[in-house]
Design goal:
Structural class: alpha+beta
Shape: globular
Helix content: 25-40%
CATH topology of the largest domain: Naphthalene 1,2-dioxygenase Alpha Subunit, Chain A, domain 1
CATH superfamily of the largest domain: Naphthalene 1,2-dioxygenase Alpha Subunit, Chain A, domain 1
Largest sheet: 7 strands, antiparallel
Distance between the termini: 26 Å
Mean pLDDT: 91
Number of strands: 22
Amino acid sequence: MDATAQSELFDRILDHVASGSDPMCSDVMMHPVDRYIRRDHLDLERSTLFSDYPLVVGHSSDVRHPGDFFTDELTGRSLLIARGDDGVLRAFHNICGHRGAKVETASCGNHRRFTCPYHAWSYDRVGRLRAIPNDDGFDTVDRDERSLVEVPVAERHGLVWVRPGAGPGGEVDVADFLGPLDAELAGYGMDRYVHERSEVLRRQFNWKLVVDGFLESYHLRFLHRSTIGPYIKSNFALFDPFGLHGRMVALRSSFDRMIERPPAERELLPHVAIIYQVFPNTVLVWQGDHFEAWSVFPDGSAPDRVVARASLLAPSAPSAPTTDAETIHWDKNWRVLMDTVQQEDFVVAQTIHDGYAAGVRAYAVFGRQEATLQHYHSMLEQELDPTADRRHVATIAAPRRVGASA
């Protein structure tokens, strides 16, 4: 985020602080709970959101050198992403041209050739079929036609994006997809970050409940009162839409020290948590000195299964070894994140899904202070059914005085 955007945000926050008001949108939103529990709705999401849209599957720091690769299964398709000798990153369906077996079974590494374990058909770093054992039995096979099938891939802001359902020759125009959010993310220099660690989490509730947990601060002083709640102000969530995407700014308790300082001495980024909701399934959380990146997917065809990849992205030089102090710092941050999410957020998410599935209520309520949630689900409705009758509330009303804020 550049200095101008930071200054504008700081002034808006001060306006709310001075008026004693929390950011609010114009009305509550009633959202159908069947969006979380209907199998046919999940089928629509999988065939649309998780096929046609750019999805984050990794970080560029994992594939910096020729031959570096990683595989990904979370999109619902088996993918192989590899750096060629020409420096170009390519993505392929991880499916052998012979009998359809998975070519690469490792999660990551560096290979000159990718060899199918079934019959040892092998492919080079650009996906071309190079070797067929006992090839006299396949003398009429067109090797170009049996090379690995490409998937559109792009790198931007240090992230690797694919369009899993697009065919060869398709494109991933991430800058166009992000729109005005692209310039803001560029200000962080995420392309200079490194992927410090990740964990893949699977649970038995709908995938959107993971995303929902990041998009409001209302719950912090209740659910997280003994963990992160004391460090982030509850109920203050300054929202801005960026087309399909959104930004929510929450205040750390340390922000109070900035209020009385002269403008030249004010700092914003160390004293806020910024949550970027990147449509349809990615959440980027600015944590003062690093990013958390969450990519969330349906886990198969059941609406009550989710798989999420949580990653810590650190601003370190890729060639510099991690120091002991850095390791201790990232260990602490990771432990807090995993403990909070798994022992608190995910526990409640399970009860929410169970409550929706019980059929007692037809709608969930998104309050006026939950503008990021309102916008996100309005955009989902819009993209899945442009003709739907939606209660789309994505604008912030004028500040109004509210009860005591945490």
